Amino acid sequence: MHHQREKYNLVSIISLALAILIGTISLIKASYFFIIFSFYLLAISIISDALLLNMSFRKTEALKQLARGIMLFIFVTFLFLRHFKSL
C-alpha cells in the first residue's frame, strides 16, 4: 500500500520540479511551447497529489485537487489548440 503512495508522491514532486525548471527556461527564452509544457506538468502534479490525497482517505481535498488539475488541463489544451489554429 505504501509503495503506491510513494509512486504518486514521486510523480508529484518530479513533475512539479520539472514544471518550475521548464517554466523558468521558458520565461528566459520566451518559448510558448515550453510554457504550455510546464503547465501540463503542473496539472500532472496536481492530479497525482489528488490521487495521493484519495489514498490517504481525505476525499474532499482529493476531489478539489482533482477538479483543479482537470480544469487546468482543459484550459491549457484549449490555449494550445487556439494558438496553433491561429498559425
Structural class assignment: mainly alpha
Number of domains: 1
| Shape annotation | flat
| Strand residue percentage | under 5%
**DSSP summary, beta strand count:** 0
**Uncertain segments of ≥5 residues (pLDDT<50)?**
none
Radius of gyration: 15 Å
**How many strands, which pairing sense, and closed or not: the largest β-sheet?**
none
Question: What is the string of helix and strand elements?
Answer: HHH
Estimate the helix proportion, in percent: over 70%
- Averaged pLDDT, please? 88
Task: Characterize the structure shown.
This protein has 87 residues and is an all-alpha fold. The protein has one domain. It starts with a helix and ends with a helix. The mean pLDDT is 88.
Gist of the model:
The chain has 87 residues and is an all-alpha fold. The chain has helices at residues 2-29, 32-55, 59-86.
Keywords:
single chain; about 90 residues; mainly alpha; 3 helices
Could you give the topology of this structure?
Blueprint: H1 2-29, H2 32-55, H3 59-86
Helix pairs in contact: 1-2, 2-3
